[in-house]
User: Which sequence fits this backbone?
């Protein structure tokens, strides 16, 4: 049995709301300092920085899982974890086609910075990333699975952009096995207190949703895996 301490919800400075210190090496080093074994990068509606962070992590012992925080047409945030970089980039291109053609206004929303693995700026993403895609929740769940990934509704305990806040409940026929709780949530208590909102029995993850380095999780949330530990085996476990 391998115990993996994780944080699967971290934004880089590519998210307009992400701090500009959220560079590949800063994130990797903070995760290592905090004693984490595995992280995922989950920018809003893009995987634009996953390759740079993966390369930064590859030189360390930190395991990296490509990811995205996608906003559905219902304005529900969903963490999508993907099995490898090429798949993540194909998924990202698909999602980009489902974003409205609105240019980012950096002075209002913040910059959307692309990095290379040495933390050098490689450009800025032109389209506004913090907005709803045209992909509805059911379509997204199928899409993420078709790409070999796993969809996990994000921060279900929050009062905005969550499946519970926006739909009122988790539908029984939605093909998900887990939801994500935010950093300070008490998942068991929340699910007991809101039993009517959960039409099916679900497992859960808890991640930081860090937009600042100081908010990246410590060694607090873990998964126990049988067999090898890599992005693919983590996703396989989370799909079950
Ligand atoms: Zn969110
Ligand atoms: Zn987030």
Assistant:
């Amino acid at each position: 049995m391998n115990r993996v301490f994780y944080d699967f919800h971290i934004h880089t400075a590519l998210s307009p709301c992400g701090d500009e210190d959220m560079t590949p090496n800063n994130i990797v080093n903070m995760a290592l300092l905090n004693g984490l074994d595995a992280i995922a990068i989950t920018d809003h509606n893009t995987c634009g920085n996953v390759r740079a962070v993966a390369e930064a992590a590859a030189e360390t012992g930190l395991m990296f899982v490509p990811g995205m925080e996608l906003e559905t047409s219902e304005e529900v945030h969903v963490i999508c974890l993907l099995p490898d970089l090429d798949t993540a980039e194909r998924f990202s291109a698909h999602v980009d086609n489902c974003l409205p053609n609105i240019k980012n206004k950096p002075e209002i929303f913040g910059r959307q910075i692309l990095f290379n693995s040495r933390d050098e700026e490689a450009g800025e993403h032109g389209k506004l990333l913090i907005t709803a895609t045209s992909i509805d929740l059911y379509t997204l769940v199928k899409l993420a699975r078709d790409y070999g990934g796993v969809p996990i509704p994000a921060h279900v305990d929050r009062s905005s952009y969550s499946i519970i806040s926006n739909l009122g409940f988790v539908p029984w026929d939605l093909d998900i096995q887990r939801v994500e709780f935010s950093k300070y949530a008490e998942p068991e208590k929340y699910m007991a207190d809101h039993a009517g909102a959960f039409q099916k029995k679900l497992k859960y993850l808890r991640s930081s949703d860090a937009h600042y380095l100081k908010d990246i999780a410590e060694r607090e949330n873990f998964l126990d895996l049988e067999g090898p530990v890599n992005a693919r085996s983590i996703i396989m476990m989370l799909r079950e």
User: Anything to note?
Assistant: The mean pLDDT is 97.
